[in-house]
Amino acid sequence: MDRPRIVNAKIVRAMLGVNRGIMTFYLFCEWVGGEYGFGGCSKEGLNIVQDHTYQATCNILKVLEVDIWEKLPGTLIRIEDEGPGGRLTRIGHIMEDRWFDVGEYMKVGVGDA
Length: 113
Hints:
Helices cover 19% and strands 40% of the residues. The protein is of the alpha+beta class.
C-alpha cells in the first residue's frame, strides 16, 4: 500500500439518518483525483451507534467550523487517505491543522476531536 496522502476536496453531499436501525452519517467528497464517501456503519468496520453518531457529527462540525449539518455541502476540506485504492482515513479543516479521524475516534470513545 502507498503512503498516506493529503489533498484538498469539497463536500458535495452530507447525509444524516438511520441505516439498518443505527443512526449514521456520510459525507461525500470530491477532488481532482476522484470521489470518496466518509462515515457509515458496518459490523466488521465502523459501528457508529446513536451516542457516537451524535458526538462524531458534533466533532466534524467543530473541526470544519460549520454550525449546521445542512451547510456542509460546498465546504472545502482536506482529506487524508491510504493512497490510490485505499480508504479515506481523516477529514480536516481547509486551513487549520484540525482533523477528525473516525477510526481513531472510535478507539478512544466519545470525546472531543
